[in-house]
Write a structure and sequence with these properties.
This is Stomatin protein 2. Belongs to the band 7/mec-2 family. Keywords: Mitochondrion. With about 350 residues, the protein is α+β, with helices and mostly antiparallel strands. It has 3 domains: about 60 residues, no CATH class; about 100 residues, Band 7 domain (Tetrahydropterin Synthase, Chain A, 2-Layer Sandwich); about 90 residues, no CATH class. Helices cover about 60% and strands about 20% of the residues. It is built from 10 helices and 8 strands. Strands 3-2-5 form a 3-stranded antiparallel beta sheet. A 3-stranded antiparallel beta sheet has the order 6-7-8. Strands 1-4 form a two-stranded antiparallel ribbon. Strand 6 and strand 7 form a beta hairpin. Helix 4 crosses helix 6, helix 8 packs across helix 9 and helix 9 crosses helix 10. The radius of gyration is 62 Å and the shape is rod-shaped. The N terminus and C terminus are likely disordered.
């Protein structure tokens, strides 16, 4: 008896802790319950009973009765979810990079009968299956995809394990890759690649910023030139409109003055007033000429103001009669004298007066 126990203890020294716990919960407890006729099965446990060495039934949680000597509790299976550490192992990716990877497997017994009689060591079988499946899945993808498709890799491993463990009455709930260790050189190369990628992105962002700044400056200059040209154009338009308005106002004022002058000449003393105005203009013109060093050819009678005024008035009357014959109707007053001003009449007269002198 002592020899058997010593051998059992020695064998436990080489068993992994997780495997030891699982076997304690699943296997070794099969020798713990004794057939005491009346048994109480705990919740979330299934006791497998054999009668005379053959499977008889599975005891459910609660009160159960067995026949002494004939019935024997062979296995005790826990129906709770169990977490198993998958040991670290080496795997080669599709691009021939060796990785060291481990994980955690979560499983649950769904069929106590298959878990008891379908496999000898369920924990060891599941662990080996997880390792081989993980190596197989890693060999299908590249190193870069290992990190990007980690979730898909976990799902693929769970799927493969469930297909194989269905006959064992065990369901794999999920598998999580815990640590991925790369060779030192590969890790350095990946770090350099990451740094180069970051520098590349930084250079691209910097160049895009410079380009945007240049575009904004060019757009600003373009906009300022457009606004300046539009301002100049509007200024020229306003200036032209102002000049046109000024010319129109002066023309209207001149026309009004001529109308008033024409009406004034029809009065009784209109001719005398016109003569006085011509004389004043004549004297003012000569005063202006005397202020400057100009050389002018003057008529011989320029010193006789009375004669000059008389000649101007005679010419005005002649032009007025001609305008009356062509532009006026009976009952109307004298129209505008051929559109000419008194200054123009005086200039015209001075030219006519010079002709016989030469």
């Amino acid at each position: 008896m002592m020899t058997a126990m010593t051998a059992s203890v020695r064998s436990l020294a080489h068993v992994p802790r997780s495997r030891l716990i699982y076997q304690t919960a699943v296997r070794w407890r099969s020798s713990t319950p004794l057939n005491t006729v009346m048994l109480f099965v705990p919740q979330q446990e299934a006791w497998v009973v054999e009668r005379m060495g053959k499977f008889h039934k599975i005891l459910k949680p609660g009160l159960n009765f067995l026949i002494p000597i004939l019935d024997n509790i062979k296995y005790v299976q826990s129906l709770k979810e169990i977490a198993i550490d998958v040991p670290q192992q080496s795997a080669i990716t599709l691009d021939n990079v060796t990785l060291s990877i481990d994980g955690v497997l979560y499983l649950r017994i769904v069929d106590p009968y298959k878990a008891s009689y379908g496999v000898e060591d369920a924990e060891f079988a599941i662990t080996q299956l997880a390792q081989t499946t993980m190596r197989s899945e890693l060999g299908k993808i590249h190193l870069d995809s290992v990190f990007r498709e980690r979730e898909n890799l976990n799902l693929g491993i769970v799927e493969a394990i469930n297909k194989a463990s269905e006959a064992w009455g065990i369901a794999c709930l999920r598998y999580e890759i815990r640590d991925i260790k790369l060779p030192a050189r590969v890790q350095e190369a990946m770090q350099m690649q990451v740094e180069a990628e970051r520098k590349k992105r930084a250079a691209i962002l910097e160049s895009e910023g410079i380009r945007e700044a240049d575009i904004n400056v060019a757009e600003g200059k373009k906009r300022s030139k457009i606004l300046a040209s539009e301002g100049d154009q509007q200024e020229q338009i306003n200036q032209a409109q102002g000049e046109a308005q000024g010319l129109l106002s002066r023309a209207q004022a001149r026309a009004k003055s001529l109308e008033l002058l024409s009406a004034a000449l029809e009065n009784k003393n209109g001719m005398n007033a016109a003569s006085l105005n011509v004389a004043e203009l004549y004297v003012a013109a000569f005063q202006q000429l005397a202020k400057t060093n100009n050389t002018l050819i003057l008529p011989a009678t320029c010193n006789d103001v009375t004669q000059m005024v008389g000649q101007a008035m005679t010419m005005y009357k002649t032009l007025a009669r001609k305008s009356d014959d062509s532009n006026t109707t009976p009952g109307h007053g004298i129209s505008k004298p051929d559109g000419r001003t008194v200054d123009q009449l005086a200039e015209y007269y001075s030219d006519d007066d010079d002709k016989p002198k030469h």
